[in-house]
Request: fold
Amino acid sequence: MKKIFLIIIALASITVINAQTIQSSSYGTTGYIKSDGTIQNSSYSTVGYIKSDGTIQNSSYSTIGYIKDDGTIQNSSYSTVGYVKDDGTVQNSSYSIIGYIKDDGTVQNSSYSTIGYAVGVKKEWAAVTFFFFKFD
Reply:
């Protein structure tokens, strides 16, 4: 019984540690977001971080933006660059719809064309990587 319990714990830990894949519309891997907020490119090089307090950093740990609890996305000067609504609607700072993050991880532009996939990624994190900040 102990062995089974340890195996279950080990498998659950591996699942939590694994990164969620960011994919293009053709399902090509463009990057990864780890559960701790580390953003990696397709070669697994770290290109940024999303901290638990909502701070967005580049690979040099310089703050480039913020995710607020209400879904507001701000740049490093605290100017609002957009919003992510609870339903996954993504708006720019003028409240114009620029895209959608579906519950299944599908990312669409304002015309409902699929531009990528972020399965298992928080909607705000997906919006940050697809619409608001360029991580190189």
In short: Confidence is low (pLDDT under 50) at residues 1-17. The chain is about 20% helix and 40% strand.
